[in-house]
Amino acid sequence: MSRLDKRPKMKKTVRFILIGLVVVLIAVIGGYTYRSMHYSSHFLPDTFINGTRVSDLTANQANELLHDRYDAQEFTVEQNGEEWKTFKKADLGLDTDFSDELESMISQQNNWRWGLAFLSSANQNLELNTAAFDEQTLNQQTEELDQEIAALNEDRTKTEDAKIDQDEDGFTIEPEKQGDELDTKQASEAFKANILDGQNELELTRYTKQPQTTSEDEDLQNELEQLNEIAQTNGTYKINGEDVEIPTEEIMDWVVYENDEVTLDQDKVQGYVEKLGEDYNTSENETQFESTEQDEVDVDPGTLSWTINTEQETEGLSEDLLKGEDFERTPIVQGSAEPSEPLVDDTYVEVDLKNQHMWYYQDGEVTLDTDIVSGKPDTKTPTGVFYVWDKERDATLTGEDYESPVDFWLPIDWTGVGIHDADWQPTFGGDRWEEGGSHGCINTPPGEMEELFDNIEVGTPVVVI
């Protein structure tokens, strides 16, 4: 056969081959296209979501598979490595319906790349948000857990901060105490955070409550220093010639530390000042007096007296204490006497109604003594600690039914009672007062009265007993 005869036959063969190839290509393209359409609603080969294989699954099929997986997930709370309480995450509000997110994943994948995904040895790993919780449910479960943890603390040792304490010498720091009490707030917050972070457990002992303030705390040390500066101050009152120490324990009870500074509880300071007045006010308390003939007697208050001004003294005492330095002070008073000195010292007049006698002491020595006539039974001379508040010559003493001129007049109270000469008295001392007594004044022989008037000073105490 010639070459010319073979050529048509070869052309025919080539044509069949080409037609066959076209048919195969069309079939392949058609098949790939068909398969690509399949992957427009299915996950590509070798696709994994959060470690779960979802190849060739629709969004609904994958959702069912993942729902079963995550619905079974649990969260365990442990104590010292042992299980204390276990929750199903679904009961904590975990949302296990991932439909929308899965649909979005499928729509974002290139379904035409299924062939490459099939031939590739690498897996396609996708991440799904598995920490979507219903906020109300999770919060409710967290609150309940908080209460259960608080109940655990009832049998645990409390953790205590370092704090200021006081003893008889002042303030000290009581060191912090580390207990095994759980910090319920921290534990509850960690519980919620771990769940939202996708974790599966919580160890409670990691949240043992720690002291917030230790003995080395700078602020606490500063507070201690300031408190002791005031509390260890030595305060002394000069009252009636005596030293009255303010007890350290009293001062410590008054000291308050607030707003980074030391102050005093004014109610307590005032209470102390009021008690001081109750004990020492000479306007309210009897005065012990060593008499010439009656030994020691208690004498009623009179015009020579003083009363502590509570408000002003509270303020003054507080100012001295807050200086943080030892001090002596005399109370601020109202009255006619100086509170720091004895009410009756060694210069005074003593009038003894029982013995109808009067003595004038100067610097502890008797410089004059004389019988007297005091007030009659229905106008008795008042007893008390008085003082000469004026000196007058040639005075006229008047009352409802009398008018008596005298040469020497020494008033001692505010009602008209005083010491004066009485030349009308025929005799002095004894029982004369019962029948010929005065309207309350102390009648004195003229000669002795002149001597007394010349030597006595205004302000001299007069003790009538």
TrEMBL record:
CDD domains: YkuD_like. GO terms for molecular function: peptidoglycan L,D-transpeptidase activity; transferase activity. It is an enzyme of class 2 (transferase). The active site is at 420 (proton donor/acceptor), 441 (nucleophile). PROSITE patterns: LD_TPASE (PS52029). GO terms for cellular component: extracellular region. Its EC number is 2.-.-.-. InterPro entries: LD-transpeptidase, LD_TPept-like_central_sf, LD_TPept_cat_dom, Transpep_catalytic_dom, YoaR-like_PG-bd. Pfam families: PG_binding_4, YkuD. Residues 347-465 form the L,D-TPase catalytic domain. One of its GO terms (biological process) is regulation of cell shape. Residues 135-162 form a coiled coil. Pathway: Cell wall biogenesis; peptidoglycan biosynthesis. Keywords: Cell shape, Cell wall biogenesis/degradation, Coiled coil, Membrane, Peptidoglycan synthesis, Transferase, Transmembrane, Transmembrane helix. The chain crosses the membrane at residues 12-34. The keyword Glycoprotein does not apply. SUPFAM superfamilies: L,D-transpeptidase catalytic domain-like, L,D-transpeptidase pre-catalytic domain-like. This is L,D-transpeptidase/peptidoglycan binding protein.
